[in-house]
Design goal:
Layout (H helix, E strand, L loop, with lengths): L8 E5 L4 H12 L3 E6 L2 H13 L3 E6 L5 H15 L4 E4 L14 H28 L3 E6 L12 H21 L4 E8 L5 H12 L6 H8 L5 H12 L10 E4 L7
Parallel strand pairs: 1-2, 1-4, 2-3, 4-5, 5-6, 6-7
Helix pairs in contact: 1-2, 1-8, 3-4, 4-5
Bound molecules: nicotinamide-adenine-dinucleotide.
Length: 255
């Protein structure tokens, strides 16, 4: 299939729904063979079916991205099914919203495992094959929350700060092997994650009304807004772009 990702094999973690789902569909439409690695098999299968119905190629590999054995098995299965991985979109992640002083050690450890350890595990599993294939592009989902804090989100903001630096550090260490690694940093986006975040922040008295979001970023973002930015970073269009934080927030962090 022709397109900006023609000839690429892309793993998208969290590629079942939301921005990950939009990216799975867009990357496939742009010619990539897509491996969706997600813990939500039903939603992932639905996305893969839509891709196939549109003429694209997609396979589903169920895994919890915070689990070493599951990640290694899913990446190996994806390589066997689709070939050497040349694009990795580390997108899976989640959020804990509560007052800091009510936060438990178990919640801290769990969120860091899902949001940060997952990037380490996925990237470590994919890199040897990507290097052997001659190089590739890694995109990590960070957030405006890496640089702009929100009350009730100390755990989440901290994980995204780590993701911000993870992307840079990988970029610097693997540049000489033709690997690029960049972060995409969404503002508030209309996904299951984003809508839950807005509802829970509102319940805690944080103003994330439509008017507040409009004042900060014009409107709520759509999953496709972020998928298009991830596509740019994944594709050869960004071949000299490495170690950057691409904010997709309509100016939220520019003020
Ligand atoms: N929506 C927003 O406003 C927003 C803003 C900035 C960053 N983000 C980031 O986007 C990601 C959330 O994605 P989304 O907003 O597209 O919402 P989403 O909830 O629709 O997508 C998350 C996907 O990740 C998968 N997932 C979650 N935990 C997993 C795990 N442990 N193992 C495997 N798969 C797992 C889910 O099944 C789902 O398919 C997170 O990394 C989040 O930090 C979201």
């Amino acid at each position: 299939m022709a397109g900006r990702l023609a000839g690429k094999v892309a793993i998208i973690s969290g590629g079942a729904t939301g921005m990950g789902g939009a990216s799975s569909r867009l990357f496939a439409a742009e010619g990539a063979k897509v491996a969706i690695i997600d813990r939500n098999r039903a939603a992932a299968e639905e996305t893969a079916a839509a891709i196939r119905a549109a003429g694209g190629i997609a396979e589903v590999f169920e895994a919890d991205v915070s689990d070493e054995a599951q990640v290694n098995a899913a990446v190996k299965a994806a390589e066997e099914a689709l070939g050497p991985i040349t694009v990795l979109f580390n997108h899976a992640g989640t959020i804990v919203i509560k007052p800091f002083l009510e936060t438990t050690v178990a919640e801290w450890d769990w969120l860091h495992a899902v949001n940060v350890r997952s990037m380490f595990l996925m990237t470590r599993a994919v890199l040897p094959g990507m290097i052997a294939a001659g190089g590739g592009s890694i995109v990590c989902t960070s957030s405006i929350s890496a640089v702009a804090a929100t009350p009730m989100e100390v755990l989440y903001d901290t994980t995204k700060g780590a993701v911000h630096m993870f992307a840079r550090a990988i970029a610097v260490e693997f540049r000489d092997r033709n690997i690029r690694c960049n972060a995409v940093c969404p503002g508030f986006i209309r996904t299951p994650h984003g809508l839950r975040e807005v509802a829970e922040l509102t319940a805690h008295g944080v103003d994330v009304s439509d008017a507040a979001i409009a004042a900060q970023q014009g409107r709520i973002g759509e999953p496709e807004d972020v998928a298009r930015a991830a596509l740019y970073l994944a594709s050869d269009d960004s071949q000299f772009v490495n170690g950057v934080h691409l904010f997709v927030d309509n100016g939220f962090t520019a003020i």
